[in-house]
Amino acid sequence: MKTIGIVLAGGQSKRFGEPKALALRRGKPFLFYSVEALRPIVDQVVVVAQPHIQKQIQLKDVQWIEDVSQHKGKGPLAGIYSAMKHHGATWYIVLPCDIPFIHETIVTALKQQADDAFDAIVPYVNRRPQPLVAIYHHRVKSLIYDCLQQGEYRMYTFLSSCRVKHIEMKEEQPFMNINTKEQYYKWIG
Ligand SMILES: Nc1nc2c(ncn2[C@@H]2O[C@H](COP(=O)(O)OP(=O)(O)OP(=O)(O)O)[C@@H](O)[C@H]2O)c(=O)[nH]1
C-alpha cells in the first residue's frame, strides 16, 4: 500500500508577514517538523511550495513540486491535487507547514485509521476538524479535480462530497498552527 506524505507550503503567509515554512522553532524551520513527522511513515515526502522556499532550505530525500499552473496559489486543495497528480499512491497523508509541534506519533496514529471504506480520515481535536492534518484516499483526486474546475477551492465544500471517517484526538499541541507573529511569540518565544 503505497503512501505519499504531502507537505503544503505554497501559501502566502500574509498574516505572518514572511514565509511560515522558514520560521524557526529550536533553530529548525517549521517545514522541517512536518517533513520529519512524515518521513518514517510514508514511501515519499512531497513538498508543494514556491521555488524560492526550496532555495532557502536543505531537506534530504524530499521531492519538491509546485502547484499545477492553472490553480497556483489557490489554497490547500490545489496543493493536494498537485501532489496527487505528480505521484500515484493509495493513500496521501497531508500536513501543513505551519504546525511545528507535530510529531511522528500523530501521523502513525492517523495511518493506522486508514480504511478503504472511507475517502478521508480526518482528526477532530477539541471538536474541531483538522482537514489539513488528514489522510486522503487516491479516489478523491477526481473529486478535487471537479471542485477546482468549478473554481471551488474551499476544503469544507470538497469534504462534504467525501465519505469521512472522523477520529477523536486528545492531544492539542501537535495540531497548533501558527498564523501570526503574536502566536509565534506566545507559543514559540
Ligand atoms: N501548495 C499550496 N499550499 C498552500 C496554498 N495555500 C495555503 N497553503 C498551505 O496550506 C497551509 C494552510 O495555509 P493558510 O495558513 O490557510 O494560508 P497561508 O497562505 O499560508 O497564510 P495566509 O496568507 O496568512 O492566509 C499552509 O501550510 C500553507 O502553506 C496553496 O495555494 N498551495
From TrEMBL:
UniProt keyword annotation of Metal-binding present: yes
Domain of life: Bacteria
Residue ranges constituting the MobA-like NTP transferase domain according to the UniProt record: 5-156
Pfam families listed in its UniProt record: NTP_transf_3 (PF12804)
Record-listed E.C. numbers: 2.7.7.77
Annotated InterPro entries: MobA-like_NTP_Trfase (IPR025877), Molybde_CF_guanTrfase (IPR013482), Nucleotide-diphossugar_trans (IPR029044)
Enzyme class: transferase
CDD domains to which the protein is assigned, alphabetical: MobA (cd02503)
Annotated GO biological process: Mo-molybdopterin cofactor biosynthetic process
One GO molecular-function entry: GTP binding
Cofactor annotation: Mg(2+)
Domain notes from UniProt: The N-terminal domain determines nucleotide recognition and specific binding, while the C-terminal domain determines the specific binding to the target protein.
Family, similarity comment: Belongs to the MobA family.
Name this protein carries in UniProt: Probable molybdenum cofactor guanylyltransferase
Species the sequence originates in: Anoxybacillus tengchongensis
